[in-house]
Amino acid sequence: MNINNIPNIKNTDSGNFFLLAGPCAIENEEMAFQIAERLVKITNDLKIPFVFKGSFKKANRSRVDSFTGIGDVKALEILQKVGKHFNVPTVTDIHESSDAALAAQYVDVLQIPAFLVRQTDLVVAAAKTGKVVNLKKGQFMSPESMKHAVQKVLDSNNENVMVTDRGTMFGYQDMIVDFRGIPTMQNYATTVLDITHSLQQPNQASGVTGGRPDWIETVAKAGIAVGVDGIFIETHFDPANAKSDGANMLHLDYFEDLMTKLVAIRQTINKF
Length: 272
Fold this sequence. Notes:
Elements (H helix, E strand, L loop, with lengths): L17 E5 L6 H18 L3 E4 L18 H15 L3 E4 L3 H8 L4 E4 L7 H9 L3 E5 L9 H9 L6 E5 L2 E2 L5 E2 L4 H6 L3 E5 L5 E2 L8 E2 L4 H11 L3 E7 L13 E2 L3 H15 L3
Helix pairs in contact: 1-2, 1-8, 3-4, 4-5, 7-8
């Protein structure tokens, strides 16, 4: 897809990768604006096309007492406010077919979670809203199998589709990134690498997903070197106290330094 089809996206002529970034979940309006303000400044300074990310609800939780959200419409309204205030596009994930039409009223990109990407009704419902659709590759799926998920969107008369690699299960409690999958999936659609979720350590005995944020820079650099179109990173100003996925989010204080390095790598890659 042409990323210029994402409403309000900027810096698309810079030659840079594009970026989907923000907190795992919308916890409140103040935190969303605080994170968005930093990300908008960083991406504008570095000329990175940017989409603000935030989940309006977290349906896939390890335990019944895990944080799931502040209320669907309340969180979506915050995402809409962020988009309008900073004049940036926004993305959120949906979990049921009925979420598609609701979320489409507030955001620009609908994301299908990895565990749900084979759910035809959900994918088709997202596609039929006419919004850009981001399909996350299932942790259990081959890169080649994503061709069929992409085709479901295309068959729904929507050509604005991208795919995201968020790692592949390696045993029960670890993830790996098979970088061969990036050029493979680029044959089907614009391809994104989800850095932070690729470093999750799921299925912990505590019922809380772990992670290896110390590897974020390494995996991100490798993704840019391979030639991925975009990257996805969850970030927070206080990951230790974030209500969801704090174990694998990048601290906001480290964001600018990482982006500066990735832009430098991308500029080198563009010479070849």
